[in-house]
């Protein structure tokens, strides 16, 4: 039976790739995109729900889907403060996770980050770890957590200095093997491909964590 998917963060680096791939995927009959504004695309399967970060808590209870893809994310600089960053990367993914659990979703797929830990002394990594921890506590049928290293690709809003990291990783990626392989950069479109493939594997119930090598394998298997 064809499924319904929700994409949160549909205009971002990963979310936009997720949206395009899900619309082209015959396994999904409806794709609900959560966006702050109208999208420059139309498709018979696409339903756009215009929602701001502030209105999301009131909109969330109206949402239902089989597979929930959460690609919300920002930087402290873009957000303007640690509090605003936490709102985007913790509070709103948790609201979505709670609604997914309450509405009977089959699975929730979260874009997190390498090094995430609720006990980290680094604020960014700690927030990422806290949202992982609290989504796990919801006991969703399946929770997929993707922990990429540096994400590369064309962003709607460029990040200062990112070009230097991208250039550096092009040199060092081939040298990262074994336990260091998880630090390889990954294209946003490749992560989106890996996420959709993971969502359609006959995996067991529970929590599934994916790092560098596993992300590569998922992407290649699609």
UniProtKB/TrEMBL annotation:
InterPro entries: NAD(P)-bd_dom (IPR016040), NAD(P)-bd_dom_sf (IPR036291)
NAD(P)-binding domain sequence ranges: 9-119
Signal peptide feature range: none
Database matches in Pfam families: NAD_binding_10
Stated name of the protein: NAD(P)-binding domain-containing protein
Organism, scientific name: Cohnella abietis
